Amino acid sequence: MLPSSLFLAFDALIPSAAETLKAQGDSGLPLKNASRKRALRLLRILGWSMLNVLVGVLLQSLTEILLTRVLAVRSALRVTTTLPLPVGIVKDVARGYLLREILTYTVHRYILHESSNPLARAHDSWYHSLPAPFPLSASYDFPLAYVVRSFIPTFAPAFIFRFHLLTYLIYQALTSLEETFAYSGYSTVPTNFILGGIARRTDAHLLCRGEGNYGCWGLMDWVTGTSLETDVRDDIEQEAERDHVVAKAARAKGLAKKKINAKVRRRRGSGSEESPAPTKTRRRTRYSGTGDT
Prior knowledge:
Blueprint (H helix, E strand, L loop, with lengths): L1 H12 L1 H7 L14 H35 L15 H25 L7 H9 L16 H18 L4 H18 L9 H16 L11 H6 L7 H41 L21
C-alpha cells in the first residue's frame, strides 16, 4: 500500500511529469481534470482496494489461529530461530512463483472470465470498469473475486511448501514490488524484461476486457496461446536484441579506447628516448698550384 500510495501521489502532484511516463498518456492519470463525480469514484476505488488488502491480512491471521489454536497443529509458516540458507530461499521463492502463476491463470481464466457465474459478472463490473490501471488498482475488485484472484494464488504456495517466515517476507516483498509497477500504468519501468512485460500485459488485459493475459508473468499465457500482443518470448527477444546492441556499443567503445591509449603510449615512448645529436661532416679541399681542386 505504501509504494503504490507514493506512485499515486506522484501522479496527482506532478501530472505533467507523470503523463510522459504513462503508457496511455493523460488518460492514464486518474486525477487529471477530474470532476467531483470522478474524484468521488476514485476515492471509492481506493477505499475498496485498501479494504481488500486488509481482508487478505485477516484471512491469513484466521488461518494461523485455526491451525495453531483450534486444531492444535503446526502453523502455516515455519517460525524458527534457525534461518534458511540463501539457496533454500531462492528455491522456495522460485517454485512459489511458478505455482502462483499456474493458480492465477487457472482461476482468472476459467472462473472469472470463461464462465457466467455471479463472481465472474462481479469481477467484470468492478475491476474491468477501470479505464486504465493506476497505483493501488491491483487490489481493486469485488472482495470475494479479489480473494480468489489474488490472495489465494499468492498465499497458497507459501502454505503448501510451508515457507519459512523470512522466505515468506521476501516473497511478499517481491510480489508487492511486481504489482506496484505492473499496475502503475508506466511504460518505462526498471528491469524492462521482467516488470516492463508484466506492466504491458496487465494494461492489455484491462483494455481488452479480459480476452487474454490471465497470468501474472505471462508464462501460462505463452504456453496456452492466450497472450495479447506480446508474450514472454517477445520480451526475451527484445531484451536480447537490446543487450546485443549495448554489448556491441560497449565493445566498440572499448576498442576505440584501447587504440587511443596505444597512440598515447607510443607518443610518450618516442618522446622519452634520447636520440644522438646529428654531427656535421666537414669536407676538406686541397688546392693545387694549377687551381684544380
